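Dear Dr. L.,

I hope this message finds you well. Following up on our conversation about the binding site, I have prepared a predicted three-dimensional model of the protein together with coenzyme A. For your records, I am including the exact sequence and ligand specification that went into the calculation, followed by the structure tokens. Please feel free to forward this to your student if that is useful.
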Amino acid sequence: MELPVIVLGGGGHAKVLLDILRLMGVKVAGISLVEPTVDKLYGYPVIGDDTDVLERYPAREFMLVNAVGSIGPAVGRRDVYEQFRARGYRFASVIHPSAIIASDSLIGEGAQIMAGAIIQPGCQIGDNVIINTKASIDHDVIVGHHVHVAVGATIAGCVRIDEGAFIGAGSTIIQNVSIGTNSLVGAGAVVIRDVRAGATVLGVPAKEG
Ligand SMILES: CC(C)(COP(=O)(O)OP(=O)(O)OC[C@H]1O[C@@H](n2cnc3c(N)ncnc32)[C@H](O)[C@@H]1OP(=O)(O)O)[C@@H](O)C(=O)NCCC(=O)NCCS
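The resulting structure of the complex is given below.
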């Protein structure tokens, strides 16, 4: 990555991303916060809020990293991504060196693949997706834009996860299942049937709750 990056957001997700950026050897120009009340965070300069990014850090000279987390459908995270993309900014992909990614997998813009994650052959990972710590994505899985697969989730082969869905920590999705747009799979659920768009499913086996 030739351009320095600006990290948008300063919560726990930012902390993890900054550690990966350091391991990747990426230069971090600073962090943008909604309320920039400090000068430094995690050892990096706070450069202001999103308006300061637009005014002082042109898209041709900086890339962005979306550090807005998401638990549930990724509304805020998606808005940040789409608003900056519409102004010509590009989002850097952040991939932990310990992630295992099959060589034929397609990884979208700004995807974030955390420590110990595994992506097997034939997968497509959309833009602005999080594949979180130790999540496992088996062969031929399609992951739509803005999806968050949370820590330790296990996705079996040929699953389809549509745009904006949230797959909870430690959940399991069996093979060939489709997960609808903006749906939410609760932590620890075992999904054995398709999930409707916008639905929340919980438990073992997972049911709408
Ligand atoms: C499903 C979820 C969003 C519900 O959150 P909530 O709306 O705040 O729900 P509450 O905690 O008020 O619980 C409501 C009911 O659902 C049950 N429940 C909540 N989460 C559940 C889960 N994952 N599986 C089974 N039951 C669950 C609660 O026990 C409670 O039942 P009760 O009414 O009989 O007491 C949340 O519990 C969850 O699983 N979030 C995912 C977190 C995650 O994966 N984080 C990873 C970050 S990387």
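In brief: Residues 71, 132, 150-151, 168-169, 184, 186-188, 202-203 surround coenzyme A (CB under 6 Å).

With kind regards,
A. P.
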